[in-house]
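Hypothesis: this fold can be encoded by more than one sequence.
Test: take the structure tokens below, design a sequence, compare later.
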């Protein structure tokens, strides 16, 4: 599932686009912002695959923001969503994946999402042969993705837990979130990514959050408050 951010200075426009994305499916809106400054702060705190970005906004506009993004590694895909059609040529100069003119039609949005998935290599699920390099006993070990139960942040590193062992990886949690890139894996907390196929119980706890219990081991993993609603949607709770 694509993780998306919606950036538009008009609240009704953001609400309409989120509604359409929900209708199309395959996209989880993990953040939204009404200005570029807040959009940058959101990007620093979480991973997203695609930004649906308006152009005409106060201060720094969407085109300037997209141009700045091209200088970053692991940048999200950009889809412009604007009321004006005369920026299309400039949009592709900053490597935008697509350019949608408001009002956005569902079929046209669906096409844009397919373009994003193609650009990110996300069409089709990750191969079960995908492996993550980790450190163990001074050696490099390749851990199959489908053997990972969950991943926990450990300072600037990550710790991968499998059915019978755990491994330290120099790959950050945010980078692993992109690399795992499967519907089975879900970022439930700033410090955890969980393979949902290993979850046996979901428990509501005081404060409006959830606690996940992993099968076989009984380990419990907290879900942050902001991730509860998206997780319930994925699990169809």
């Amino acid at each position: 599932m694509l993780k998306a951010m919606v950036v538009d200075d008009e609240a009704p426009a953001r609400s309409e686009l989120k509604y359409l994305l929900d209708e199309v499916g395959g996209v989880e809106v993990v953040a939204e912002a009404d200005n570029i400054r807040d959009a940058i702060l959101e990007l620093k705190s979480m991973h997203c695959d695609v930004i649906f970005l308006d152009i005409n906004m106060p201060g720094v506009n969407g085109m300037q923001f997209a141009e700045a993004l091209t200088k970053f590694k692991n940048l999200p895909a950009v889809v412009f969503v604007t009321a004006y059609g005369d920026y299309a040529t400039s949009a592709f100069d900053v490597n935008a994946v697509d350019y949608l003119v408001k009002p956005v039609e569902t079929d046209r949005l669906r096409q844009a999402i397919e373009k994003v998935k193609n650009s990110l290599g996300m069409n089709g699920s990750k191969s079960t042969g995908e492996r993550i390099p980790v450190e163990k006993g001074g050696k490099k070990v390749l851990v199959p993705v489908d053997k990972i139960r969950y991943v926990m942040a450990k300072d600037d590193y990550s710790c991968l837990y499998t059915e019978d062992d755990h491994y330290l990886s120099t790959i950050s949690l945010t980078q692993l979130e992109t690399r795992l890139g499967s519907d089975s894996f879900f970022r439930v907390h700033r410090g955890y990514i969980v393979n949902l196929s290993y979850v046996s119980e979901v428990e509501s706890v005081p404060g409006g959050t959830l606690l996940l219990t992993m099968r076989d081991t009984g380990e419990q993993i907290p879900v942050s408050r902001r991730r509860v609603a998206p997780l319930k949607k994925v699990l169809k709770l």
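Residues 124-128 have pLDDT under 50 and may be disordered. The radius of gyration is 19 Å.
Hypothesis status: open.
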